[in-house]
Specification:
This protein is mostly helical. Among the domains are: about 240 residues, Serine Threonine Protein Phosphatase 5, Tetratricopeptide repeat; about 80 residues, Tetratricopeptide repeat domain (Serine Threonine Protein Phosphatase 5, Tetratricopeptide repeat), CATH 1.25.40.10. About 70% of the residues lie in helices and about 0% in strands.
Length: about 525
């Protein structure tokens, strides 16, 4: 009789769901339906923890699942949740300490009572942690994806299985696969669940990730505009829509999204009494700087860089923090064409453990190389190109293949501009075309808004620099298909059209640039030129 009552209760929960709110200071995390066989008293807490997990609030999810296992030490799925909370499939592989933590949690499920469905969930994530000292991250991630596919097929009515399987597909999507097979498969699964559960935080979140690619981005706009309303208590939910906004060049929406996220992140760490900056706050600031620069809000962008001066210590000292610390100053110098500043570039944090992030150091060297070359210091540019080669070799040795290739792209681009500084124009163009082609063959990392400067846009600038405006226009327009509504891309295309004699196209593009910069708080030379042409 007791078993029947429990089954009935779980069925009711499955059908009705639980809106995760109010029990924790009025927080709103969205609605999750995930019945488990743990003590009935922890069921709402479990669904709250899963909602946190779906929004990548891993710190709070880990606390929530740990509290569940304290309240009910026999709750096998609580330990599953701990293992899930220390694995971020779209960010960076877990550290050795996190792998041990996940493995230890799964070990505690041995011998505990669980339903066949729950055992399948536990077995699926166990495929990722098993033999982590012998198998590489990607091999284990693919094993988890295949295990989740089997679970998804075995329980076709379990929407959580569908949602977690879609995330696993995104986690193993190859950045060189231009068919976007995994992403499209994940998107199709998620859209079906979205129609049934529009207030599910993971569904909206993972749709955005599935479509965070130039040809697919418009498909994610509805989810992007809804996710922040679904989980307004989550800083990451405030930020995440800007992935789609960035892809579509919707800059003010991106600014609003990331300012809200950064403010929420700061408030979160203040509440915890932390004396460091949360890496997720840095992440939002990177995106907001990128958007400010495209709209000519240069003072706002520089204010963020100045703010980072008081944010020298991040927590955790993660991949996410490293990227923001390195990319923000590089973007400011390169986007604003402050070549001397770029040549003397340094990351925003001086105390960060940069020796653990060779690709982060490479961003700084890339900026220095371009800055030096554009000021005519070919020797310094060449020295930075050599550093890039060293960083690439380090990443190859560490088997960080993706980042090694990103540094390879930067090295080609930097070498191209060094050659230009030496007057070797044909060599420069050959190298820059190679960089652009290499970048076209891959995709940005899910954490980043875009390359520090798109390689094909740099090719357009190089062609302008060697007085080939017609070819430059072709490259600027090609770059805009991947990275639309970029300030320098629009100006470059307009200038190339102007120099090619196509005045009508030039004016159309200049007008678009001026309109895009209606909130500009300074006036770059490019913007003054655009307005002068339009005034004629």
């Amino acid at each position: 009789m007791k078993i029947r009552c429990l089954a009935l209760a779980l069925t009711v929960l499955l059908l009705a769901g639980a809106t995760v709110a109010s029990a924790h200071d009025g927080e709103k995390l969205g609605t999750v339906r995930f019945p488990v066989s743990c003590a009935p008293a922890v069921q709402p807490d479990f669904e709250r923890a899963v909602a946190l997990l779906h929004s990548f609030w891993y710190e709070e999810a880990l606390k929530a699942f740990t509290a569940i296992t304290t309240a009910d030490a026999t709750c096998a799925m609580g330990y599953w949740g701990i293992a899930m909370s220390v694995y971020s499939p779209l960010w960076a592989p877990p550290s050795a300490a996190m792998l041990e933590k996940g493995s230890a949690a799964l070990e505690k499920t041995r011998g505990l009572t669980a339903t066949p469905r729950e055992k399948d969930y536990i077995a699926a994530i166990d495929t990722y942690y098993r033999d982590h000292d012998k198998l590489d991250h990607r091999t284990r991630a693919v094993a988890y994806e295949k295990a989740m596919e089997q679970l998804y097929q075995r329980y076709p009515d379990d929407r959580e299985a569908a949602v977690f399987y879609a995330l696993a597909l995104n986690g193993t999507a190859a950045p060189t696969d231009k068919t976007y097979a995994n992403q499209l498969k994940a998107g199709a699964i998620l859209e079906k669940v979205f129609a049934e559960q529009p207030n599910h935080p993971g569904v909206a979140h993972y749709i955005i990730h599935s479509y965070d690619y130039p040809p697919l981005a418009t498909r994610g706009l509805v989810a992007a505009r809804g996710y922040a309303r679904t989980a307004p208590s989550v800083p990451h939910a405030q930020h995440m829509p800007s992935h789609i906004f960035t892809r579509l060049g919707l800059w003010q929406e991106s600014i609003d999204s990331n300012r809200a996220s950064a403010s929420a992140g700061k408030a979160y760490y203040t509440k915890l009494g932390k004396d460091a900056v949360w890496d997720q706050t840095l992440h939002a600031l990177d995106y907001v700087v990128y958007a400010y620069l495209q709209t000519g809000q240069d003072k706002q962008a520089r204010a963020v860089l100045e703010e980072l001066g008081a944010m020298q210590k991040s927590e955790p000292e993660s991949f996410v923090a490293a990227y923001a610390y390195a990319a923000i100053p590089a973007r400011l110098a390169l986007e604003q064409h402050r070549w001397s500043e770029a040549a003397a570039l340094s990351p925003a944090s001086k105390t960060f453990p940069w020796d653990r992030f060779a690709w982060g150091e490479a961003i700084t060297s890339f900026g220095r190389a371009i800055g030096a070359a554009r000021t005519g210091d070919a020797a310094k540019a060449r020295a930075e190109v050599q550093k890039l080669d060293g960083y690439r070799a380090t990443l190859v040795t560490a088997k960080q293949t993706y980042w090694a290739e990103q540094v390879n792209i930067q090295q080609h681009a930097a070498a191209a501009w060094a050659a230009r500084a030496e007057g070797k124009n044909e060599e420069a163009l050959k190298l820059m075309r190679a960089a652009a082609d290499l970048e076209d063959a891959t995709e940005k990392h899910p954490v980043t808004p875009a390359p520090v400067v798109p390689a094909r846009e740099l090719l357009g600038e190089l062609l302008l620099d060697v007085n080939q405006p017609a070819q430059a226009l072709v490259e600027f327009e090609a770059s805009a298909k991947r990275e639309p509504n970029r300030f320098n891309g629009l100006f470059g295309a307009a200038r190339a059209a102007e120099l090619s004699g196509d005045v009508a196209k030039a004016k159309t593009l200049y007008a678009k640039l001026v309109a895009m910069c209606d909130r500009a708080d300074g006036e770059r030379p490019e913007l003054r030129h655009a307005k002068a042409v339009l005034a004629k």
